[in-house]
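Class prep. Sample record?

___
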Amino acid sequence: MTVSASAPQPHRVAVLVLEGAKPLDVGIPAQVFTTRASMPYEVRVCGAAPGLVTGGDGLSYHVAHGLEALDWAQSVFIPGYRSPDREDPPPAVVDALFGAHERGARLAAISTGAFALAATGLLDGRRATTHWHYTRALAARHPLVRVDENVLFVDEGGVLTSAGAASGIDLCLHILRRDLGVAPANHAARRLVAAPYRSGGQAQYVPRSVPEPLGERFAATREWALHRLGRPLTLDVLARHAAVSPRTFSRRFVEETGYTPIQWVMRARVDLARELLERSERGVEQIAADVGLGTGANLRLHFQQVLGTTPSEYRRTFTRGE
């Protein structure tokens, strides 16, 4: 599914607009993967049939393509839509999505688009997420799906899902990182005026009966840590910055991000190492020291655990201008 930087043909992307489609969810993949010199993608917006599709929030869409676009596409985005828990999309849509997956296309659902993806059965036995308001409904309607309500997106290889609204940007940037590397994804994030990497989960957006000011405090601690990845960042150091006990910090951090503090720091260090591998000629040992992972062996271990590859292979894949 990876897009080669030197591939002569653009990667084909379809955005499937269903009845009640949410404008932001439709616009995010259409804009992120817009056809331009720096983005090797071609986008087609489609519906169950060509013509007018009634959307949500008072908007409608005139789509030029029908479900044949899913035969053409290598990646299919399914934006969220209104009232997904009431009924499944038309059988022709479900069949077309399943058929696209069978042909090797990547399927990515934004927000409540996860319901359409779940209707195909492709999420059965897999982790998935959706907008926090609908996580219980998704679990009830599709009990074989392992719904995770505490993350911004879930990558299960050929099928991906994201939480609500703006987390579609997180999902699209993640796909860009997977396809093209960190630097192009960061460039796209700057163009969108968006954070290139949000480590937190959607749990921080779920309303609570008692307001919790800790979410903002921990966000500040995460930002503080990102600028000090080359220094020791133990649980005690992070908790001290957040002005809470290590036990409280650890418990609340997992609730907010889905990771323990040390897991989160390790992943942030791997992400920084990825960018240094792409944008510098530093050796693996130097990069390991720069990002706080100590030795090249330690960097290789964590790289393999997180990305399933080695730093050297990653550099060969994503270094440009060779």
Notes: DSSP finds 14 helices and ten strands in the chain. The beta strands are 11-16, 41-46, 51-54, 60-63, 75-78, 106-109, 127-128, 146-147, 153-155, 159-162. The radius of gyration is 20 Å.
